[in-house]
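Exam review. A common question shows you a sequence with its structure tokens and asks you to describe the fold in words. Practice with the pair below. Do the first one on your own.
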Amino acid sequence: MTEPALDQPWRVIRQDDNGNRYLVGRHSTREEAERVIARLEAGGHKQLYWIEGEPEAPVVGQ
């Protein structure tokens, strides 16, 4: 399995029944992340999924 690209700002996170959280993947758009969650939830496995946006880096010199 390959590591998710770090330059993609939208993270899909999964929380299991014990409260452990895992990075599922990183995506370039929120819409793409939402499609991933929809596909995972359609599988019938009862987990909690959500999207987190990466904070933008401050622009230096402005």
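Now try the second one, then compare your answer with the model answer below.
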Amino acid sequence: MEPYKEPWYATALRAGLELVGWIGLPIALWPHSIPAAIGVDVLLIGVPAVFQTPGDKPGTNIAVPGWATVLMVLAELGGAVAAAWLLFWPWLAVVVTALAVLTCFTELPRWKRLLAWQRPVRA
């Protein structure tokens, strides 16, 4: 897989929504369950930091197929939308939801590349 150059706006949208999920979900869960609040950040931050698709970003800790990376991004976007609806005014939650849908469209070229069948290379 050749290195992928992602557009800046796709990266910015995804990163902004990741922050909403990383910060918002623990805040929303804290009054109900402190272990859940900590666990959600371990899942949303830790799992993508450890498991990566080779060729998607520089460096790979534990290699996973492209579909796993797509699912991790969808989980991050879902976390941001859930946090918005739990914490924000409804109009702002609608904005976050619309940005998450827009992010899915900006991610399509990357996702198509990640989901494309690649023939294993033997050394």
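Model answer, second protein: Strands lie at 51-52, 62-63. The first helix runs from residue 8 to 29. Full marks require stating both points clearly.
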